[in-house]
Amino acid sequence: MSTIDQQFVEYVVKTLVGHPDDVVVEREIDEKGVLLTLTVNPEDLGRVIGKRGGTAQSLRTLLRALGAKNDARYNLKIVNNDGFTGTRERDDCDNRASVDNSTDEVVENKSSYAENTRKELAELDDLDI
C-alpha cells in the first residue's frame, strides 16, 4: 500500500512520461526525513529531469510544499537505471555528477571541480605577463 506522498509523485510523473507503467516510487524513512526513490523507463529519464534539471527541481519544490503540510522533510532521488556509470573519458575539468549520484558525491564532484579551477587560476597568477 502506497502513502499519499508516493501517490502524489507517481501521479505527477505518470502524466509526464511516455511509459507510465514503468514508474516506481519507493519510500524510505531515515534520520534526514523521507526519501522517495523514483525509477522510470530510461527513455523517460530526460523528461523527468527536464532541461537543466528544471522538472526535477519543480518536483522537489512540490514535495517541500507537501512536507510543510505534513510536517515532514522529503528528499527525491531519481535513479538512472540505464546502466550508465557516470564516468566519462574527459579531462578533470569536466567532472560533473550523473543523475543517480547521491548529494554527497555531487558536492564532492563540485568541490573537485572548484579545486581544479582554483589551481588553474593560481597558475595564471604566476605567469609574468
Automatic annotation (TrEMBL):
Biological process per Gene Ontology, one example term: cell wall organization
A single cellular component GO annotation: cytoplasm
Protein localization: Cytoplasm
Segments of skewed composition (Basic and acidic residues): 87-97
Keyword presence, RNA-binding: yes
CDD domains: KH-II_YlqC-like
A Pfam family matched in the record: KH_KhpA-B
Disordered, as annotated region: 85-114
InterPro entries per record: KH_dom-like_a/b, KH_sf_prok-type, KhpA
Main location: cytoplasm
GO MF, any single term: RNA binding
SUPFAM superfamilies: Prokaryotic type KH domain (KH-domain type II)
Alphabetized UniProt keyword annotations: Cell shape, Cell wall biogenesis/degradation, Chaperone, Cytoplasm, RNA-binding
Highest taxon above the source species: Bacteria
Signal peptide: none
Family according to the record: Belongs to the KhpA RNA-binding protein family.
Function, as annotated: A probable RNA chaperone. Forms a complex with KhpB which binds to cellular RNA and controls its expression. Plays a role in peptidoglycan (PG) homeostasis and cell length regulation.
Assembly information from the UniProt record: Forms a complex with KhpB.
Protein name (record): RNA-binding protein KhpA
Originating organism: Candidatus Nanosynbacter sp. TM7-074
Gene: khpA
